[in-house]
Structures are given as C-alpha cells and as structure tokens.
C-alpha cells in the first residue's frame, strides 16, 4: 500500500525520522516539498491509526495522511487520472458526504468536475466529508480515497485556514483555535483559566469569549481592547514568579516564548493547579538553527516524556499555524488539583 504523509516543508526531516522509528519495515521517499511517500505492507487503516497516535504517541509532525490506490507517472494523460478518480468515486457509498483535494499547479477544474459527476455534486461537503478523495501531482501522480476520519485533517494538506476577524488581537489566536479543533477540545463555558505568556492577548481574548474568567500572566502589556474586561486579571510578572501563589484552574494555556525544556518544566510545576477534568494547552518552541533533526526529535521526546510524568494524557502535533513549534494538549491526572 502506498500512502502520502503531508507535513510542514521545514519538518520533512523530522517526520522522516519519526516514520522510520515507528515503521522500520516501510520504505520512505520524498514525493514533494512537505510530502513523504510511504510504502507499507500494512493496510491504510492500520497505518493511519499508528501515525495519528490512537492510544499512543503517533507522528507529531504529520499533518495529513492520504492513501494512493493508484500511482501514475507525473505526466500521465488527464484521461488516466480521471479514470483513477472515477475508480475512487466508485468506492464512496451512495449518500455519503465526500470531498476531493487536488494538489497541482494550474487549474484543477477538470478533475473536480469529473469527481462531482461521478460521486454527485450534491453530496460534496468541504467542511464535513465522510470520504476524502486525494489527487496529488508530485514525483508521481497519486490518487486515492479514504474515510476522512483517518486522514488527520479534512483541509487540503492539513492547512487549516481561518477567516480573519476584525476583533483578532494576534496571529497566535489561530494556533489556539486550530488546537481546539484538531484535538477536539471542548473548553468549559464557565470557570477559571490561566494564560501564561498572554501578551498581547489573543489567547486571552478567545478564553474570555468562551465565558471563562482569565488570569493573564505576562511582564508585557495587553492589547488596549482587553484592558477593562470584567473577567480579566492581568498579572505583570513572569510565569515562574506567579506560579507559587496560583490557585486551581479549569484551563491552563502557555504560549510563552521560551526554550522547550524550560516551558515544559513550567507546565510540570502547573500540573497540580489543573482541576480534575481540566485541560492544558501549550506551544513547545523548537530550535530553528544549530540543532540537527535528530537533536530536535530527542528534545521533543524529552519534553513530552517530562509532561507525561505530570499529566494523565499528553497529545502533541505540529499544526498548520505552528511555526518551529508544536502544540501539546494535556489532561489532568488524579495527582492534579
Ligand atoms: C508569542 S507571545 C504570546 C502570544 C499570545 N498567546 C497571544 O495570543 O497574543 C509570547 C509571550 O511570552 C511572554 N513570555 C516570555 N517569557 C515569559 C515568562 N517567563 N513568563 C511569562 N511570560 C513570558 C512574552 O512576554 C510574550 O508576550
């Protein structure tokens, strides 16, 4: 079975190392920037579950997974590609919502139209497909179809786009919104939240909009639009200064610009403050220069192991809005508040 795994183009080396470690019996090959080809004896379902980390760590740097039931030459005639798309469409049970992602330079209209004719335009759903057809022009032309729930993301290449809102305070907001969606986080509508490294206040704004009472900790100032919010307290201090006096919180978030190991240690010191059933979200900043991919992966392992020593469940992924960082979601264990 052939599959394509999409990642950030900067993280190809990291994804390849992770895949080699997880699937030593598989052949890996560069297919395009940010796209790794996997050849495996395993069924796609098994491969997808391993990579997405059901019940285990998974591949942190994978953004999307797609099977390729047909592998054609990169310059295959359009008629051959359309025949493969038709074959994929025939695997979609009647009435199922479906979508197609076409990765190619130039117009993809012919391919999309052919899929709509074969699978039914009315059942096409860009936001909630049950089946996902993927056509990728890379070192070859790959065509496949799978249950969307196995693909890690229903956005082309895992590139989740958000509409820009007037009220948005910082680009960082997209990271928290994407994390909530990707990890299926249902943040509480009441209770308290702690935002470490809050300035200028994008994550704080989202938590306030959720209805939470927010303590925002950052030596830097918050955006003027937040200043008089009745459910917000801004503590002008570092996280390390604040934590010894802190209370219990339903949600703890941390987007501090700080080395990954230091930031993970801060989150370990916060574990006892997270209420039962509570959720913590953090970004782990990875070194951009001077460290090999192996070194970055070792650092990632050390940080995730450290977090796992303090929290009941730790999940991590590099999401589309992460730049040289990972998003980590933690759930409170019995040792937490
Ligand atoms: C990327 S910004 C956070 C953006 C924020 N999440 C938002 O949505 O607007 C990183 C912040 O971490 C803060 N920071 C760095 N070290 C810190 C520390 N030790 N304690 C608290 N905040 C820290 C910086 O002052 C900076 O405002």
Report the CATH superfamily of the largest domain. Vaccinia Virus protein VP39
Average the pLDDT over all residues and give the rounded result: 95
Low-confidence stretches are: none
Taken from the alpha-carbon principal axes, the silhouette is: globular
Distance between the termini: 47 Å
Secondary structure: number of strands: 15
Structural class: alpha/beta
Radius of gyration: 22 Å
Question: Any idea of the CATH class of the largest domain?
Answer: Alpha Beta
Major sheet: 7 strands, mixed
**Strand adjacency order, main sheet:** 11-10-9-12-13-15-14
**Could you name the CATH topology of the largest domain?**
Rossmann fold
Helix content: 25-40%
Helix segment tally: 9
Ligand names: S-adenosylmethionine
> How much beta, percentage-wise?
25-35%
Q: What is the string of helix and strand elements? A: EHEEHEEHEHEEHEHEEHEHEHEE
CATH second-level architecture of the largest domain: 3-Layer(aba) Sandwich
> What is the total number of structural domains?
2
């Amino acid at each position: 079975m052939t599959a394509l795994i999409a990642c950030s183009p900067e993280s190809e080396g990291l994804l390849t190392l992770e895949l080699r470690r997880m699937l030593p019996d598989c052949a890996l090959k560069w297919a395009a920037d940010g796209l790794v080809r996997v050849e495996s004896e395993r069924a796609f379902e098994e491969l997808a579950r391993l990579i997405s980390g059901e019940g285990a760590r998974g591949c942190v740097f994978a953004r999307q997974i797609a099977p390729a039931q047909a592998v054609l030459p990169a310059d295959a005639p359009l008629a051959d590609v359309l025949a493969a798309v038709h074959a994929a469409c025939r695997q979609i049970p009647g009435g199922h919502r479906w979508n197609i992602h076409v990765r190619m330079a130039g117009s993809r209209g012919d391919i999309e139209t052919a899929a709509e004719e074969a699978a039914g335009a009315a059942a096409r759903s860009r936001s909630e497909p049950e089946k996902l057809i993927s056509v990728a022009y890379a070192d070859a032309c790959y065509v496949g179809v799978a249950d969307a729930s196995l693909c890690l993301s229903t956005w082309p290449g895992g590139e989740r786009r958000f509409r820009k809102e007037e009220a948005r305070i910082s680009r960082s907001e997209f990271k928290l919104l994407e994390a909530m969606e990707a990890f299926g986080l249902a943040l509480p509508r009441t209770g308290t939240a702690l935002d470490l490294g809050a300035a200028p206040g994008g994550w704080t704004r989202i938590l306030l909009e959720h209805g939470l009472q927010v303590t925002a900790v950052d030596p830097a100032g918050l955006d003027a639009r937040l200043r008089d919010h009745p459910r917000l307290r801004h503590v002008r201090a570092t996280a390390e200064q604040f934590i010894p006096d802190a209370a219990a919180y339903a949600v703890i978030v941390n987007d501090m610009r700080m080395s990954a190991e230091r930031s993970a240690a801060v989150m370990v010191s916060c574990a006892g403050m997270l209420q039962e059933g509570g959720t913590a979200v953090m970004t782990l900043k990875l070194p951009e220069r001077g460290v090999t991919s192996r070194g970055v992966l070792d650092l990632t392992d050390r940080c995730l192991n450290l977090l796992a020593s303090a929290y009941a469940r730790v999940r991590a992924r590099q999401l589309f809005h992460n730049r040289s960082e990972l998003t980590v979601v933690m759930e409170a264990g019995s040792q937490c508040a």
